[in-house]
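Before relying on records like the one below, remember that each one covers exactly one chain. Contacts with other chains, cofactors or solvent are not represented anywhere in the record.
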Amino acid sequence: MYEKQIGQRIQTMRKQRGLTQEQLAEQLDISTTHMSATERGVSGITVEKLVQIMNCLDCTADDLFCDVIKSGYKTKASRLSDLIAELPAKEQKRIFDVVETMVRNAK
């Protein structure tokens, strides 16, 4: 049901870490074909392999499941907060002003 979203997240994180499908598949001891199918969401993956993926990609379950669990917005907010904290104060203020305006308009 959520295989496609989780697969896309795995693919994104793999690319962010500079790994090819072949490299990650080798670390997981699975075929490149299976890795590709997992990332496309056409093949499920065991909990054991998910744990191995998290260890290989140095990520958490929240990182992988943030798009499919109800509390995922907290993970996204935390991730955005970390990214914003790296910006100069002027850019931080600009972003917060935009977000606050969007929230007010959404109500």
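The longest helix spans residues 89-106.
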